[in-house]
Amino acid sequence: MGNWAFVSDFDGTISKKDFYWLVIETYFPEGQELYKKWKAGEYQDIDFLQKVFKSIDQNEDQIIKDIRSLPIDEHVPSFIKTVQQSGGDFYILSAGTDYYIEHILLHYGIDNVPVFSNKGYYENQNVHLSIDENHKHYSRRYGIDKSKVIEEMKEKYDFVYFAGDSEPDSHPAKVADLTFAKDALQDILKENGVPFIGVNSFKEIEKIFRNKGILS
Q1: What phi-psi label fits residue 134: left (phi over 0), alpha (psi between -120 and 50 degrees) or beta?
Q2: Which pairs from 179-184 meet CB under 8 Å and 24+ separation?
Q3: Strands 126-130 and 115-123
Q4: At 110, is the secondary structure helix, strand, or coil?
């Protein structure tokens, strides 16, 4: 098979809920209106997220507790281990922030998974994003340009798999060798004529991989 990588989106793909929804529902009811405006195109994705993450107003222990309460696909930790044991590298590629992703990885004891995302940090009761406009992966809309990351990986790997669930994932899906699509991403890729395999969970992805003989 040569060297290969599995790259997964985080919010809504690995996690069953987007972290921004957890914040809106718990601390920021005004976020419901903001969400509508964002979906209507009045906000860039990254501006919407920055506003939401700055509206938590809790100490860091509480925020970490909230992050750990985020429900994830139960099969993800063992799937990652199986990929790594079968000679694949696993990456997370997210237009959210590494701040909560790293806490989730730590919480589930997941090792050796590099995270490509917007840099985040805790300060003054909130989560802030540190966006570098000169970074090679910078995107005005998302903070990080996911397709640039996948393009770069394709120079290093013979085969790059990708999994995602929503609009930001439609761009890297065009570049990846094979995309597994959940939820809204399925319709978006259909409309754009981008090939994909529709799935609902990592258990299904693992089954497909076992049938193809990719996992040992």
Answers
A1: alpha
A2: 180/205, 180/208, 182/12, 182/13, 183/12
A3: antiparallel
A4: coil
Q: What would the two tokens of residue 73 be?
A: 């696909």
Contact 104, 46 (CB under 8 A): no
1 burial (CB, 10 Å; 0-12 / 13-18 / 19+) is exposed
Break the chain into its structural domains and give their ranges.
4-18+69-212
CB neighbour list of residue 48: distance below 8 Å, 6 or more residues apart: 20, 34, 35, 38
- Residues 57-109 have pLDDT tens digits of 999 999 999 999 999 999 999 999 999 999 999 999 999 999 999 999 999 99
N- to C-terminal Cα separation, the chain:
12
And the tokens for 152? Answer: 């770069």
Q: Is 133 exposed, middle or buried (0-12, 13-18, 19+ CB in 10 A)?
A: exposed
Number of Cβ within a 10 Å radius of residue 103: 17
Domain at 4-18+69-212: CATH code: 3.40.50.1000
Q: Which residues contact 79 (CB under 8 A, 6 or more apart)?
A: 202, 203, 205, 206
Residue 1 — very low, low, confident or very high, per pLDDT cuts 50/70/90?
Answer: low
The owner of tokens 């590298």 is 89
Instruction: Quote the crossing angle between the two packed helices 45-53 and 19-27, to the nearest 10°.
Output: 40
